[in-house]
Here is the input.
Amino acid sequence: MSTPPQSNVNRIGLTAADYKGSKSTLCPGCGHDAITGSIIQAAYELGLEQHKVAKMSGIGCSSKTPAYFLGRSHSFNAVHGRMPSVATGAHLANRELIMMGVSGDGDSASIGLGQFCHLVRRNVPIVYIIENNGVYGLTKGQFSATADVGTRAKSGQVNEMMPIDLCEMAIQLGCGFVARSFSGDPKQLRPLLKAAFSHRGTSVLDVISPCVTFNNHEGSTKSYTSAKEHDAPLHEVTFIPHFESIEIDYAPGESREVTLHDGSKIVLRKLEEDYDPTDRMRAIDTIERGRVDNRLATGLLYQSKGNASIDEDLGLVDEPLASLPLERVRPPREVLDKIMASLMTGGA
Amino acid sequence: MSTPPQSNVNRIGLTAADYKGSKSTLCPGCGHDAITGSIIQAAYELGLEQHKVAKMSGIGCSSKTPAYFLGRSHSFNAVHGRMPSVATGAHLANRELIMMGVSGDGDSASIGLGQFCHLVRRNVPIVYIIENNGVYGLTKGQFSATADVGTRAKSGQVNEMMPIDLCEMAIQLGCGFVARSFSGDPKQLRPLLKAAFSHRGTSVLDVISPCVTFNNHEGSTKSYTSAKEHDAPLHEVTFIPHFESIEIDYAPGESREVTLHDGSKIVLRKLEEDYDPTDRMRAIDTIERGRVDNRLATGLLYQSKGNASIDEDLGLVDEPLASLPLERVRPPREVLDKIMASLMTGGA
Amino acid sequence: MGLSGVGRRIEPSTPGRALSAIDNRFTIHVATVNGSGSQTANTTLLRALFQMGIPVSGKNLFPSNIAGLPTWFTIRANDQGYVARIKRADLLVALNPETSVADIAAMEPGSVLVVADGLPMPATPPDRTLYKVPFTKLVEPLVADAKLRKLVVNMIYVGVVSWLLGIDPSEVDRALVAQLGRKPKALEMNRAAVQVGIKYAGEHMKRTPFQARRADRTAGKILIDGNQAAALGALFGGVTFLSWYPITPSSSLAEQLEGFLARYRKDPKSGKATYAVIQAEDEISAIGMVLGASWAGARAMTTTSGPGLSLMTEFAGYAYYAEIPAVVWDIQRIGPSTGLPTRTSQADLLSVAFLSHGDTKHVILFPATVQDCYEYGMRAFDLAERLQTPVFVLSDLDIGMNTWMSQPFRYPENPWDRGKVLSASDLERVKKFERYRDVDGDAIPYRTLPGTNHPLAAYFTRGSGHDEAARYTESSEAYPRVMDRLARKFETAKTLVPAPFIEKAQGAEVGLIAFGSTHHAMDETRDRLRTEGTPTSYLLLRAYPFPEEVERFVRGHKRVYVVEQNRDAQMAALLRMEYPELAPRIRSVLHYDGLPIDAESILKGVRAAERPSEVTTR
Amino acid sequence: MGLSGVGRRIEPSTPGRALSAIDNRFTIHVATVNGSGSQTANTTLLRALFQMGIPVSGKNLFPSNIAGLPTWFTIRANDQGYVARIKRADLLVALNPETSVADIAAMEPGSVLVVADGLPMPATPPDRTLYKVPFTKLVEPLVADAKLRKLVVNMIYVGVVSWLLGIDPSEVDRALVAQLGRKPKALEMNRAAVQVGIKYAGEHMKRTPFQARRADRTAGKILIDGNQAAALGALFGGVTFLSWYPITPSSSLAEQLEGFLARYRKDPKSGKATYAVIQAEDEISAIGMVLGASWAGARAMTTTSGPGLSLMTEFAGYAYYAEIPAVVWDIQRIGPSTGLPTRTSQADLLSVAFLSHGDTKHVILFPATVQDCYEYGMRAFDLAERLQTPVFVLSDLDIGMNTWMSQPFRYPENPWDRGKVLSASDLERVKKFERYRDVDGDAIPYRTLPGTNHPLAAYFTRGSGHDEAARYTESSEAYPRVMDRLARKFETAKTLVPAPFIEKAQGAEVGLIAFGSTHHAMDETRDRLRTEGTPTSYLLLRAYPFPEEVERFVRGHKRVYVVEQNRDAQMAALLRMEYPELAPRIRSVLHYDGLPIDAESILKGVRAAERPSEVTTR
Ligand SMILES: Cc1ncc(C[n+]2csc(CCOP(=O)(O)OP(=O)(O)O)c2C)c(N)n1
Ligand SMILES: Cc1ncc(C[n+]2csc(CCOP(=O)(O)OP(=O)(O)O)c2C)c(N)n1
Ligand code: SF4
Ligand code: SF4
Ligand SMILES: [Mg+2]
Ligand SMILES: [Mg+2]
Here is the structure.
């Protein structure tokens, strides 16, 4: 990740460097570090206020990364595979928090699959990033549930089981923002990341992120080379935040524009074939076909205004529940008296 | 369920009554009891040998039902939502067992979603029946994760969240036999049940099964009336077991025939529109559209020879692991000596 | 906090006589079928007696299914204020053909039997009074609809029983109105049924030797179950977040709380909710949500029972080690695994105390009365936020789901305690913030909430090794430093949790210790022991870790009997761990058949144990 | 089963002298970086010493990440056979710039320091011998490729150290061949590097005062880690099913077992697998699969560590109550929650003993040596199937992942014990089968396997209430009957589990009790105490529940110190629960910083505790 010169500050006067965290302890070259770089850059470009952000993660190399970006944000490194429930609680306690979740394929597709699905079903507002390397990095390279059929582990074992596609699952569960990208393609990843923050509800980003130590060898389908080979971008992605008014003009029919919850826009420049990310069936179809002809469709897979988010469903007050004063959460004495009276039918 | 007269015995000389279990303790009229009836009838018609069957279940009214059928089969009533893992272990210990799983929508779609998905992904050979009433019956009527949007609970609460469709999930996870039916339609349910036993690998049957006590009221979308109303059969199902050679002839184009692993056949008689259950995308499409125009497609949703089942993947010996004698599982003395020698480099 | 109902006992008029029925001292046993709607009928009888000023308790013994299996309801009326379970029934109403033979056979001499005509019967000796009542015939003229009949028939036995016991008909009617007032048609029908019963009894029976007589023992008291009381406590304690997963016998706590919240916690201006209630997909998720919500500053709780508790194990250790408040109500049922979901016990104690792998110890509250449930409903939050650790409230099915008499609950006099939370302005003042530093010497650190707008506010919460500044570390100095502080924090807890309730007896060598629902059988037990010449002191444990009074009490008595409702003497084990030097004098009286403990069983145990040798009663 | 290596100790030549280095009594400390491939180098030194006949142990102290963080490797050579950790290092090899200052500062007078040129250094007092070595310069001529250099450079310090200590070069070479024999090119390169080191040392250094001299203390012994030993035990124990979820430090047990199975358990005829290994999606699933497999008749096991153990809580209670065999290896790491995944401890004891809500007690084995790991690897299955209950094997990171010396393992003399399983023909003979009936008076019932072709075979397995015939029941008689039998079964377990290893000292007032990896520091501790005039008896606990010998031992000593590696004195707590009358004499010596316990720390603890007051050492 290239840090822009000091002079270069964002709309709240911070430099990209201000969005860094502590030094990474991951293996040099790990895809996760590249994603960290994109997150830092995206947050910087959006001008996120770090104190409003809550970084949530599970357990794994990927789940360690929140320590490496947005050093001035609170962070919750939960237990393995159960971050979604913690994130749900945190959001409901303070709906003003900008929720960010970072997880791994083992964390979300193996042990955490149930919680992942239920978080998506509840449409908890969170930018949920899966750093997908097809293996358990931190425990030294066992297959995860996203390992592709026929991929060979360093140990020599070959995976026979069908991979779980978290993007397809998310779409099926009603998710309104589903994208896939590659740690090695910041040009695509950053605008998608930025766009995700403009979506109200759960946004899922599945980012292929090679594990250079345990899953970057010949025969691995999640290695840099293999990911590059099969990467099939659906479109070229540009993000236009609501606070900027840039005009991009493509020849008619050459691009699509998607407007997001906060007025920001995503401009998708057409590549070989036109892709409509608002067509749910088309999205599922694209993923399914990709499996068959071994092409990894990346880009904005699906987007819709989607259903109400959970805090809307529950009709919460605008202020954070966390900061409501006693008088607003303890009913008056009369209420207790009334209830007691209704229970009090004793004689004499 | 109508018990046939004594004279009426199946190919192994048993009557339908022989396939009963103990008396049901469910509420009179519960959909689950109707499914129990269909299971008894199907097992009877197939002539299943009860000692070869293992009945697995979780916790719930639905999960109690294995006590009410096939009284001469071993049964394992596991903890809530975790039956899939137990079934996986039991199958691998003895691959000759005919595995049957009975679960509820809470048991499989709420607490058990992760295990359900991973069982399907591993393609564990089992007939997995979900008795789906959209609520937690045994705990008195709270919503489960299959409750439809807008459905009203007895308590008056309205569900806002998108239901989880276990059939669609199963298809997505590579399941080779996926069917949906209705407890009130034994004519359709029985042939599907029988066919499931002929599939090698996981077969998923999602059976709408009204909870007469907590979810059979006005405003519930899983009540008898509502289920009947929206039931949209894809075809008329007939099952022809491998051990019988019946000829059914429909006018050409009027029906499809699907041949199963053991040579048995399913004949699907065309209704309004032709439906090809071997078309994966079509199956997903049908379920998705059903959601939109509120029609519940029932019948054989998807079928394929599918991937290898887990015991095949693991290349297990033909005999049950459980019954291998000591000499086949304890390597000879020489092996230990060899290993010790390799570790023994002590001096003097 | 006061004594929350504990020990405000009514001095027995004639101590010791509790087993044979006399006026205002009898037990009614109704044997019926699950789902037959006898609940209203039983509540009517209960309330009528209560309204006459007679202390009562009602215990519902129901099966783990929805309809069709045997159910029993026991009403104990006792002018001495003994409201624990008693085995002996004086008046039986038998309506269930499946169990009538056993039900009737269990009745003792002098008892009165009201049996539905045509039920299977054993031979009944002459010293029992037997009445066969043609309920079905009696109900026919009243209602046409068969389904309705099934319900209304219950009111006929209400009429019969009230006449037999001489319960004031006006009180029966008042009780009926209290329940059905809003449904005039149903009210009329049931009134009629009661009349039929009264009339029939008047014509065919004679009053029982034990009668209900007006008294003044219930004036100003309420009737309520523990789960509802706990829900009220949480409501007035300012709960803002509840996540739960349905499980008997805890569901009614969550559901009643949700009901109260929907009614009393909508913002007056916007009409929006000042709370969030989530039905989680399982208990792992339920506790995970609670931790997330507490971490972000909500007053968060969950309710569960055994199996759910087991699923919370990993997160419990996280909360202990990362120091996150949480309130977990465990309404205990009996058994490892599923066990008997509708039977009571106190067997989760050890697993809660050490819930999670690694060196972990949890703070536990033991509500003994419905008033405790109400007050701990508030206080558990104060303790959890003050101590920054999960607080477990160990109730059980008997307290939680049965009906108890109580003083009305007091409105909280003081505000809440939200513990050591630093706001942006606090940070501005103190200039320095280290999440896990013991600044005040009480081993309790300070925390900040996400969203706090100050450069010092942010920190990293993790279940892995961390130092005082919440930095990741694997240092072999930092780890034990943190663990030792957590141990000291547990010492601090001893000074904050509710003190035990103690009742000393002059020169008593024997001390009795109990906790939770067991408490209600202790007055009766001790009165009986006293009359037998064994005065006993009594200590009611109300929290773990044990405040120092507990050690003094044990030290002060030669023999101490710990009475508890589990097999493995779990509370005795905790006491022996805490006080090794005193361990030899600690003995056990155990009861674990799933039914609420009764004085008779305890007496057996203590008597037998006085000949040293640990004894198990059932 | 024999004593499995326990107590076959080598009588010390000069007891007590263990802390200052002399010939064949020294410790090498290598400080390097995770992922730098120093493993081969360290193993070479370890083996070379071992081959010279000198007792050794190797301890790897590694971080919880994959590459780039500090790592330390300690080799202890000790002719007295003391192989526990020792804090003092006599020879340091410092290669890590991140830690060099601290590493060097920690060295004591008389020690020798080999430091990579250019590392940050503190001022080193004259009484330490300091050598700066230009490793990077030395390696350049050897290898071109930079990545390779990083690895090869390690062999240079092997050369240097071996020369300093006078280790026979031929043994160094033998050790190299043993490891790299199959890769000739690598072998040559490393050989060259060793030579460079030897040459450089010869030219610039003088031999250390403490030398390695040929001895005869390792003849016929093996070097192995506990997880590999456990894997071998399972292999020869006839395991047929393994399901696991990766977690440090247990993964290497599962992975080594899978390796052995793939190699030695393919059917000779068909070439097919006589076993199934499944990587589950989490530990709930892993234990669920084990229960399903055991229920269906497989010899099933799983391996895990703390967090995974916590997730198994609910199923553990199910297995206890439904009486299903299962073998669970818990390779303990330290901390509640994630804690320090690469540090050792014995802190899961209490949570395992009572794992699950409700009245639950589990059988636990405590391997102390690699030979225990091997033998319990087999025996755990026999016990689980005999007792029809889960058996937990409580190992730890120190035993499991570090390298230990041992007698070679013996091939099992007797067949396996598959417990009380009734086949179709058995059923034909006995004519009657009730799953939960105590037929033999040992409280262990009989079971049948699914697939058994007999009308009597089938039964219903459930975690809910059941009677002797496995019928569903909520009876308040049946429930305690079943629970009491389970309690009696636990008594039976006492007679089947491995007996403690006991070493009495004439007229000793003080008894020491230890379990697991703590054992290795006990010989050294007791020898030192003896020379200080405090003779001690010793009991090594090998299983819970405790066989009666344990009570006799405690009774036989005035003061008993329980030495364990946790904060909460968990084993002491279990002993106090079991033996309340003896509780006052039970004291604790605790160690819980995540590093393996050492004799010095124990001595501190015992000495201090002899002035009564429980003491914590670190
Ligand atoms: C309950 C539990 N089980 C197992 C582990 C061990 N563990 C730590 S990380 C991890 C897998 C991480 O894989 P993934 O989520 O893909 O992250 P990656 O390291 O590949 O980025 C496992 C199994 C744990 N910490 N907790
Ligand atoms: C760990 C755990 N949590 C909660 C429960 C309580 N419980 C029993 S059945 C059930 C839900 C059953 O719903 P479903 O699977 O749909 O079955 P149904 O009764 O509707 O047929 C619940 C929550 C339990 N037994 N175990
Ligand atoms: S092990 Fe793999 S995933 Fe983990 S840090 Fe190294 S490269 Fe990244
Ligand atoms: S509660 Fe509902 S699901 Fe359960 S038995 Fe009754 S009708 Fe069936
Ligand atoms: Mg991964
Ligand atoms: Mg249901």
